[in-house]
Design a protein that fits this description.
The structure is a single chain. 32% of the residues are buried. The protein is α/β, with parallel strands linked by helices and 309 residues long. It has three domains: 15-94, Transcription Factor, Ets-1 (DNA polymerase, domain 1, Orthogonal Bundle); 105-169; 172-306, Rossmann fold (3-Layer(aba) Sandwich). The protein starts with 7 loop residues before the first strand and ends with a helix. Helix content is 42%, strand content 13%.
């Protein structure tokens, strides 16, 4: 068997063939051959054939469950199953996720305890990063990220509270900034402002929408001075965001950098599968409001509930 250069010397046996290599830590990039070697190294050589038949690579290995080890890999012995899972958790804790973890989510989870890095890969695969983690709900942590341990979810939520910036900031005089596409969502944006004005909130909306450099600068400064960033999304609202100077793109990027509480309000809008710039990635991870005109008051109540004071 020919092995890639990502291996270093260490004796092991693989399907009757002597191999003198040790695996690297970039587990998400492991080919099937690396997984076979790993199973052999941890004493799971009896199951290598099933691993090979199921074509388990590094990606699948990091996501495999105890039930799948039993049903698909054939590890029916309960204690052996638990031992393999223990070794797998150790692997997850020592793995190098840098190739897919550009924001350092693994380091954030490890700041709680090193064992929390077992959740890094499923969270990354769910689209979570350091920026969007602060908007995760308990239900999303459990059902989307696969964190079944309630105590661990509580610890992660405590961490979220610490990094979320959900405290009143005297340097942010505006309760909300409303971002919108003038050609498609101006009606919804205006309605949102009126509803919030009536309830006593100090809301900014850019009615001018000028491309003048000074005006754009002033608008982005206002985003920084707002506790909440409400983006009104209707059909085709995100058209044009791929352009570097698109105003919505700049407003969203500024809101993220300023740690504003971002709330999308959706009216006849569905999240597109089309490519979007990094500035707008994970917008669908934030708590959003589906606007229903017949239930306007209920929608506003929900919006207010999501807003920080």
């Amino acid at each position: 068997m020919q092995l890639a250069s990502g291996l270093a010397p260490q004796p092991c046996q693989l399907i009757g063939e002597e191999v003198s290599y040790r695996l690297n830590k970039k587990v998400p990039q492991w080919p099937i051959e690396y997984v076979l070697i790993w199973f052999n190294l941890i004493g799971g050589s009896d199951f290598i054939k099933n691993v090979l038949e199921n074509r388990v690579d590094g990606d699948l290995l990091l996501r495999i469950t105890e039930d799948e080890l039993r049903d698909d890999i054939g590890i029916h012995n309960g204690l052996m199953n638990k031992r393999i899972m223990r070794e797998l958790n150790n692997l997850k804790q020592s793995a190098d996720y840098s190739s897919i973890d550009s924001t350092g989510l693994n380091s954030v989870l490890k700041s709680i305890n090193s064992e929390y890095s077992v959740y890094t890969y499923p969270m990354l695969k769910a689209g979570v990063n350091v920026d969007s983690i602060r908007f995760l709900t308990d239900d999303q942590l459990k059902n989307v990220c696969g964190i079944s341990n309630g105590i661990h979810r509580s610890c992660i939520k405590d961490l979220i509270q610490k990094i979320s910036g959900y405290t009143e900031n005297v340097d942010k005089p505006f309760d909300a900034f409303i971002s919108y596409r003038r050609s498609t969502s101006n009606v919804l944006a205006s309605l949102l402002k009126v509803c919030l004005d009536i309830r006593g909130y100090k809301v900014f909306i850019d009615l001018k929408r000028s491309n003048d450099a000074k005006h754009r600068h002033d608008v982005l400064q206002t985003v920084k001075k707002s506790k909440n960033f409400i983006i009104a999304l209707t059909q085709d609202s995100l058209d044009g965001v791929i352009e570097p100077l698109d105003m919505i793109r700049e407003e969203v990027a500024t809101a993220k950098q300023s740690q504003c509480n971002i709330i999308p309000v959706l009216d006849d809008f569905s999240w597109s599968t089309s490519p979007v710039p990094d500035d707008l990635k994970n917008l669908n991870m934030y708590n959003s409001i589906s606007w229903v005109h017949d239930y306007q008051d209920a929608c506003v109540n929900k919006l207010v509930k999501f807003m920080i004071k």
